[in-house]
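Hello forum,

I keep getting stuck at the same step: I have a sequence, I want structure tokens, and every attempt I make locally crashes halfway through. Rather than fight my setup again tonight, could one of you with a working pipeline run this one for me? It's a single chain of 123 residues.
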Amino acid sequence: MTEAVNVLGEKLEVCGTDPKTGFYRDGCCNTGPDDLGAHVVCAVVTDEFLEYSKAKGNDLSTPRPEFGFEGLKGGDSWCLCASRWQEAFEAGCAPRVKLKATHRSALKYSTLEDLKRHSMDLS
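Reply #2:
Ran it on my machine without issues. Output:
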């Protein structure tokens, strides 16, 4: 297995552990052939984004205990579907991104420049 790489070409960093995120619930935005939604953009969600996502049919804020999901609140780090992040970007409500924890496959959906404009981890 090869080491996961972020959009900056470096080793993929952890996105979030409280709540534990990632398609594989390993805290990282790792992806594989079974991740059809490409959950690869590490974002710090906002209330505005959570409302937007809910309106688009993906309610991330309501707890779903049957799936071990407590629901997200503004400020939580979460691996988002790359296409949803891009859609929110185009709608003007994309959350900030942790580039070092965003998998390089996100570049199939968004440009590095757009992701950098919403970066939290570049100085």
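The chain has a mean pLDDT of 94. If your local run keeps crashing, start a new thread with the error log.
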